[in-house]
């Protein structure tokens, strides 16, 4: 009586977006999510409609105060609900119904694909150039070809096989970006739904949801004083053309330490940030590099870390926003702590030695003197043309266990980032031991980045 329960479902759906990350352009109508819906039919079944839906929700839960008297604050909002019908067949009489049935049958016939065989297709045709949906999946894509339409009867019947229905969804540029926080989230997903003629166990089949991450191009900060733009720059092009540079002095001002990156303060997810360190003697330029008796600089720490700050606010509430901080990326060249993870330095950079206590020491001898950055402009040179004394790379993963989120500002969630460079050095160390230094220099340089 119930022998068919263990059999696979007659129909299964899956959604395949061309990309799971969407970057919204402000004020643009070209924000389009493209993909296709795959319908796997194992037994003949009727089709009434097939639709795809993109939806998103914004959720925030935080408390004001401490203890039992604290007040719960919540935000619940649906920030997207976009549906598009791919196929629809209305089982009613009249000329409009016949036209709708014919259109549905033609859409199904065009979408149907099948595996090529030696009988009906001796040579598998190549997918057309630029076909975004011709993605090899277990050999199915190589031999797909549309089949003819032979019937327009009601309802449209799907015979066993695979059907692919392409879709394009226009997304508004005002969508809040995706965010994941300990206090809430902004999350988006897309799924497909197919309606069949009513049966005993229901008439609707849905696909598993596919998560979509939404990003926004950096723009003016809302409510910034004086109309200032992000990070104080008046235009995004000016921000992109300004290199990232940290500078400070150690050893009583006798050494200038510069940390430089050719990239700007706009960091790109998935692209590692490369930093290089330059050590410069700031003695009288007429004397050149100082004599060996003038001392040397020993470096015991060169670390870089990216911190992410998430601001949570309830619009219209007098409660002050709550800010959470987490370290999302870090890298170290010469770690002071024994348990820190070392990173391999380039072949042309000085090597870190180990004195047995777990502190790596990088010696910057006098012959490693480089040009003072203040003279670079006069000489017509750039940091890219100078020899660096140390370099490291900071990974910025956009997915995985601890992804880096994009910077943005909105009424409920705002995400900002700060890059921190830590340097520990000493001038005139004896026996290469920093512990002999009575006053080692500790530098902590930071800058806001996007």
From TrEMBL:
Domain Arrestin-like N-terminal: 156-199
InterPro entries: Arrestin-like_C, Arrestin-like_N, Ig_E-set
Region of interest (Disordered), residue spans: 336-357
Stored Gene3D superfamilies: 2.60.40.640
Signal peptide annotation: none
Protein name stated in the entry: Arrestin-like N-terminal domain-containing protein
Taxonomic source organism: Coemansia biformis
